[in-house]
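Q: what does this look like with adenosine monophosphate bound?
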Amino acid sequence: MAVDSTISSPLGPPACDKDAKALQFIEEMTRNAHAVQEKVLAEILARNADTEYLKRFRLAGATDRNTFKSKLPVITYEDVQPEIQRIANGDRSPILSSHPISEFLTSSGTSAGERKLMPTIKEELDRRQLLYSLLMPVMNLYVPGLDKGKGLYFLFVKSETRTPGGLVARPVLTSYYKSDHFKTRPYDPYMVYTSPNEAILCPDSFQSMYTQMLCGLIERKQVLRLGAVFASGLLRAIRFLQLHWSQLSHDIRTGALNHKVTDPAIRDYMAQVLKPDPELASFVSRECCKENWEGIITRIWPNTKYLDVIVTGAMAQYIPTLNYYSGGLPLACTMYASSECYFGLNLNPMCKPSEVSYTIMPNMAYFEFLEHEHHGSGSGSNSNSRLVDLVDVEVGKEYELVITTYAGLYRYRVGDILRVTGFHNSAPQFHFVRRKNVLLSIDSDKTDEAELQNAVENASKLLAEFNTSVVEYTSYADTKTIPGHYVIYWELLVRDPSEPPSEEALNRCCLEMEESMNSVYRQGRVSDNSIGPLEIRVVRNGTFEELMDYAISRGASINQYKVPRCVNFTPIMELLDSRVVSTHFSPALPRWTPERRR
Ligand code: AMP
């Protein structure tokens, strides 16, 4: 096959003609990154020249980089929130985009405790689809024979709401799974899933997961890869199997679907595929009733070649658990994306998680990079920070990603910090370092320092009647259990030791903290069951002073020492845990309803 692909591959040529075209496209885009970026910017500026937002900055029809950079400010969500709110309220005039805003994508990033609303336009679905279409051609270079079996992917839709102006607001993946792009995708032997659309599209998370797991068990020998979007999602599926294997095995034995699955579309589908299979049922029971679940994934799905889950960024905390359940199968992180825009893909998906780099595809949006100052205070950048173009970033440096999208975000700070690891042709490759200002994360929740501080303040008010206050605190995302949960260490000042705070009051403090968290956290607790009850561990007096002594003994400056508001360094955890005098858990679920949209 005459394909000019320079993507390094141990296996050689593309798997099929379709793959060859996709790889060729990657080559073209990455070779011409500079020109593609110029064209993307010109397109965005030309088509949106008459929007209220761009007119404000008097570009006078200019679509070149220099004018754009000299006239448009770099912004955050809060800067553009008034415009977004007007669109949400029903203003259909071209405010940000000349193309009508088709819906809002609800980001897991929050503003004032609520999910951010990202405007999108219809054609963005094509752009997302295009990026998805590049993933398998790259994977096929490294893992042969994926057309000989299926993928067991746990994919879910989440609840959606409408804005006062009538636009749908929902997560980007919900939007994608409900689109015709996904639902009526043409047959592709490399992308056959065990999960039927009926299960993926069922809004009830129990029924959806139950059916997806059941289908995965029925076709266990065909499964060549297992996946979910994030590592936490795949572990939730394993936990689900731990809790429900007996019922699942019963269904397989009898050929009758659990009556708790009531969704008519699922029942119709399963009536076709679920047949009594006592041998498989006994196998599932035999494996699952064992105490030891080490390597369970390869025992149940013996032909699995890799796990397809994101384990970069905050998800790295799940790598040891995934290795335990899979016996160390390769972990493939295939793409880097957000509600604002899909960014790029990993051209070497079978590499070690610590070595994952994403190549940003220059056709997706216009990308700029704000040099990230390691020692800056708080925001990590200041007015002197330099913004550079995609092709001008330097290997080894860290940058914050700034995007200009077709849907009407201009010079928008995404909040992700990326480090340049190298180039593929002239397109840089990035290691995802972290999201700015995120202290705690279990699933898609992201809790920052201010939110944690506010939660501690609210909860500690409940201790006033005991004449007690919180003198110091820190936190930890405990992911040893599934689902993981937040642990907050408190050192208390109990002014009247004869009347310390009651057990019940401290439990209520846990719940009060949860009530104070943002809506993504509360949705994780209530609707998705992806986060466990918050725990407060009260440590004995003087513990935080010991923590400081420890930091100073390791070279911290006594003048500049600040209590870390989140910890994960083992000796520090051991110190804290050895000083715990009592532990308390949230006794109930916090309040959460699908969001109000003002
Ligand atoms: P959302 O706002 O819910 O659309 O989430 C998008 C954010 O998830 C990105 O801005 C990143 O912070 C994070 N994210 C997405 N893909 C990856 C990845 N492959 N590795 C690490 N973090 C990611």
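The longest strand covers residues 412-424. Residues 375-383 have pLDDT under 50 and may be disordered.
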